[in-house]
Amino acid sequence: MNVNIVCVGKIKEKFIKDGIDEYAKRLSRFCKFQIIEVSEELCNDANAKNIQLTKTAEGERIISKLKGYSIALDLKGKTLSSEQISKKLSDLKQGGTSTVNFVIGGSFGLSQEVIDKCDFSLCFGAITYPHQLIRLVLSEQIYRAFMIEEGSSYHK
Hints:
Layout: E1 2-8, H1 14-27, E2 32-38, H2 48-63, E3 69-79, H3 82-94, E4 99-104, H4 112-117, E5 120-123, H5 133-150
Parallel strand pairs: 1-2, 1-4, 3-4, 3-5
Helix pairs in contact: 1-5, 3-5
């Protein structure tokens, strides 16, 4: 199975990069894990119109990378437990899905076009995470999902 995180921008903080790299290494025994970054759109004046233009431009770049089953990370999405995320991935794999994309927007979030293009919307709770930090949290949850499926004691 191919598992991708499709996201906007590059990670700047070394501690976040190191954490993602660690989970990528751990995930290599379960899947082909890849981070697919699209360029961030500059938005000098954060008014409503410019924010929408930014989300649309980033969204077009994201959509061009989506092949397979796509899951948007969105505050309006469904909240799942780690066990439910594991079951969802397991069901997709058993159903013949070869590629799963987790989609993370830029600092203004995802455009409606991206959310509509995705097959499922997932929410990690009511709090807002920095879009770079959520990559690390998501990488860990993907790893946890595979460990749950395996019956490992990693998930207690």
